[in-house]
Amino acid sequence: MQDKGGEAVIYKADVSVSKEVNNMVEDVMGIFGKIDILVNNAGITDPRFFLDIKEEGWNRMINIHLKGTFNCCGFVVPHMIKMRKEGLKGAYIRLHSYHDEIEFLKGQLETIDKNMEELLKKIDIAEYLLSILGIGIITVAGFLTEGGDLANYSHFKQIQKLAGLNIAENQSRKHKGKAKNSKRGRPELRNLLHKSSLTLVAKNKEFKALYNYFLKRPKNPLKAKQALIAISVKLVRVMFALAKKRENYDPQKVLGEYRMMQINQLAA
């Protein structure tokens, strides 16, 4: 390159870290005075089987592929805009790199979904868990991966404890209605149940009604975060029951007559 009159600089930086990207861009601007073309080629993949990839590893791939693209464009584009305003030409951005990165990740996700679907077909209880409206392949696969063989449990509270969802409501006058979980156990399972609960209260009629009841009940109403914890526990209970009884989800049974009476009285 030097023989042809060109010049190059090799710079080591973690594109998922904003400060490192900013320092890199500023140093390059200091050397060359401008940036004409931006190409994002940073990318990593995890060679392990997808069920062995933990949330931390997945987040790292997302950071490199998407956040890395965002950071590089975020610090370079302002310089390009400034150059254009000053009359400099030739500033080109490879915007299709966004498209390439997104298509790459979509392809990986589609492959993972297909692999999980095939594996779940081999687990006889998976179909019962998937019958819950609002619960999909990723949730069931994660639940069975973190919880293991449900035949090893005699009560749903064992899974509740495993997830660190041991709720205690303070009955004192000053802190009445306060609820919290222990945050012990497996954080991946707890986070999975939390995200699933958010989906359920939005898409599942029965869980949404139960969530609203927890928020508005006359005695000991819960705050939004506390109510979601209670929904997570309910989800564990329902999934455990369906697996043990080998039954599909039944909207008429999930809440029970007494709870339905309470919900109806509140709505009246």
What key phrases describe this protein's structure?
2 domains, Rossmann fold, mainly alpha, Transposase_20, elongated, 268 residues, two-stranded antiparallel sheet
Descriptive overview:
Strands 1-2 form a two-stranded parallel sheet. The protein has a two-stranded antiparallel ribbon with strand order 3-4. It is elongated and about 80 Å long. It folds into two domains: 18-118, NAD(P)-binding Rossmann-like Domain (Rossmann fold, 3-Layer(aba) Sandwich), CATH 3.40.50; 123-267, no CATH class. Helix 3 (96-121) packs across helix 5 (137-147), helix 7 (187-203) packs across helix 8 and helix 7 (187-203) crosses helix 9. It is mainly alpha-helical and 268 residues long. The chain has ten helices and four strands. Residues 127-211 form the Transposase IS116/IS110/IS902 C-terminal domain. Pfam families: adh_short (PF00106), Transposase_20 (PF02371). It comes from Caldanaerobacter subterraneus.
